[in-house]
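Let us work through a complete example step by step.
Step 1: write down the sequence.
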Amino acid sequence: MTPISRVSHSLMPVLVLILALPWMVSAESATEFLINGKPIPKIVAKVNGTKLTSDLLKREMIAYRLLASRQGETMEATNEEKVAQGLLMKAIDDELIYQQGLKQSIHIDSATIDRELNNIQSQFPGKKLFLAALAAQRLTFDVLKKKIKKTLVKEEFIRANIASKVQVSDDKVKSFYNQNTETFMKPETFKISHIYVTIPAEGDGDADSPKDRAKAKEILDWVINESRNKIKKASLALKNGKSFTSVAKDFSEDPKTAAKGGDLGFIMKNQTLPEISNSMLKLKLGEVSNVIKSSLGFHIIQLNNKIESHILPLVEVEAEILNHLLKLETEIQLKKYLSNLRKKSKIEIFI
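Step 2: predict the structure and record it as tokens.
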């Protein structure tokens, strides 16, 4: 994963949540910024002379409340001060790392920042919604660009100075695998092919007047009957010995699989419609189902292969485990680095 994608991943959820919870945004914007009933000074901290403002802390508090609300949690007034202190300490740590990155002349060019900004904006339905999300969190384009820049500088510093020095032995990877084998259990999978004939979607027959509704129902009933006759012809062709691949090519209306003989590849039981899943579980290898009716239409499936649930071998998950352990060890080393860096820095906190 590139640094740019990590930035999008960290910024997007909060911006989207702001749009989903406008009532909270309005409440935040309309009131004075208080923590536990106390007003907050304009400067909440200084890090080696660099000022951290109350606006920064308020943005982080808004984001925290939104995410907590999304998870069904509420922040009690008595906990506000503790949460604010935690968010401020994170902002201080971010500033410390950013300052170290600047000392090493880590440079993020404006084109990279603009690409990231455009990448974030493109994930909104329109520019107005994007601007509304920014305004709600007290963000401007310039502030967001600075946030992106600081994040990229911080990540590059960590990559070059901490992550690059982290090592994980093969024994640790094997030990993690042996202690967490259930994590690597792959569910039962089924390789199936299908023949699919569509029917009108629910609601396609809606009309304003009783006369129009009756006419629409008549047409829908005719279409559904035609589809039923088509799937019956496909079923008869299979019973007469025609290959499933050939029948799928002749009758299936699935544009993605018809030309491939209806091949859907391997799927798990929860990756398809319940009606198909229930039928699939009852089939023997090579067996063809009866006609299956679902909300989407008519189906016939064939079970081509089946792989029982099993624990993935180490060789298939080794890279995943290694990346996981490297990330954990990097976080440990980063905490140690920050602990030492704080001792060497002049940090003033005013809340």
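Step 3: interpret the result. The domain at 3-161 is CATH 1.10.4030.10 (Triger factor/SurA peptide-binding fold).
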